[in-house]
Amino acid sequence: MRHQPIASDLKVTARSPFHVFYEGDAKSVSAVNPVGQFDILSGHADFFSVLSPGEVTIETSGNPITFGISNGIIAVRDNEVMLFVNM
To answer: What's 49's domain CATH number?
Structure first.
């Protein structure tokens, strides 16, 4: 298992097949999976999940980015978060 120092920001890409919702640094990502609502923060363990319909919120250093989804997947690895939604 690799251990990395905790970085201050996540690198986030949130996109659908024809739209990029957000690409850049973020403090956290919140979404819903079949178990319930969850948050991804800097230093989160590797994670993969199917997303349930609901809202995704990306907390940035400016205004939060919030958008609704009908489905999707999320992958987290080494402080990089990739969301592929509305497929």
So the answer is: 2.60.15.10
Side chain identity at residue 66, one-letter code: T
Per-residue pLDDT reduced to its tens digit, 21-75: 999 999 999 999 999 999 999 999 999 999 999 999 999 999 999 999 999 999 9
**Domains of the chain: total:** 1
Cite the beta strand spans of the chain per DSSP E: 10-16, 19-26, 28-33, 36-41, 47-51, 54-59, 65-69, 72-77, 80-85
3-class DSSP state of 72: strand
Q: How many residues does the chain have?
A: 87
CA-closest candidate to residue 22, choices 75, 84, 76: 84
